[in-house]
Amino acid sequence: MKVSEVADLVGISVRTLHYYDQIGLLTPAYTDLSGYRVYSDQDLEKLQQILFFKQLDFPLKKIKEIMNDPDYDQNEALEMQRKLLLEKRNRLDQVIKTINKSIRYRKGEVTMSKKEKFEGFDFSKNPYEAEARKRWGDSTVDQTNEKLESMNAQDKKAFQDQFNDIYRELAEIRHIDPASEMAQKEIKKWYDYLNKIGNYPPTVFKGLGQMYVEDERFTKNIDQFGEGLAEFMCAAMEVFADRNK
């Protein structure tokens, strides 16, 4: 199939396919005598894999890295993608329930506690673990994962609740000076929390805060608790780290 035919079939732009070729993510099987890119059935299967990963918010650079791995197994990848997409759907279903209840709350039809307003937001699992490994190495991430895996279901639930509570408390003060006494007192709770489940010295803590604003996916997730929260946390974490070197 030619590039325009693939674009029409899949519903993406010709420009996108050209870009995938340019970065070496998806290079068509060959180019015909007229200079047109021609995609094989194998190319289409690879494109399908790429789009599944994109549905899971994987960056193109990471998709390329995964798919170029000598040990990459397409069947295994499909099983993993299905599992992750089902988890994503379940999370979205819960968020939709929260939205529906919020609409009824705004109409005065039901009452809604502060906690109920954030049901469905689960940040206890980091969907971008690869970025953390790349930036800080395996040790910090592995220690955190080992700590979480050693907990029973009740302890995990308690940690998740504390996680969300800290974010809600920080969201309420996100408009004050990040260097203020109150802001630093609250951000220390986040520092102490992280160090209960891993090893986050001030330099790593500061780097984590920078990721909150450098990676739009983190920003989007964090700002669901309040617009501007990611930027506030980044600034407060930087002040805290510099003061506690």
From TrEMBL:
<keyword id="KW-0804">Transcription</keyword>
<dbReference type="InterPro" id="IPR000551">
    <property type="entry name" value="MerR-type_HTH_dom"/>
</dbReference>
<keyword id="KW-0010">Activator</keyword>
<dbReference type="InterPro" id="IPR047057">
    <property type="entry name" value="MerR_fam"/>
</dbReference>
<dbReference type="Pfam" id="PF13411">
    <property type="entry name" value="MerR_1"/>
</dbReference>
<dbReference type="InterPro" id="IPR009061">
    <property type="entry name" value="DNA-bd_dom_put_sf"/>
</dbReference>
<dbReference type="Pfam" id="PF07739">
    <property type="entry name" value="TipAS"/>
</dbReference>
<keyword id="KW-0238">DNA-binding</keyword>
<protein>
    <submittedName>
        <fullName>MerR family transcriptional regulator</fullName>
    </submittedName>
</protein>
<dbReference type="InterPro" id="IPR036244">
    <property type="entry name" value="TipA-like_antibiotic-bd"/>
</dbReference>
<dbReference type="InterPro" id="IPR012925">
    <property type="entry name" value="TipAS_dom"/>
</dbReference>
<feature type="domain" description="HTH merR-type">
    <location>
        <begin position="1"/>
        <end position="69"/>
    </location>
</feature>
<keyword id="KW-0805">Transcription regulation</keyword>
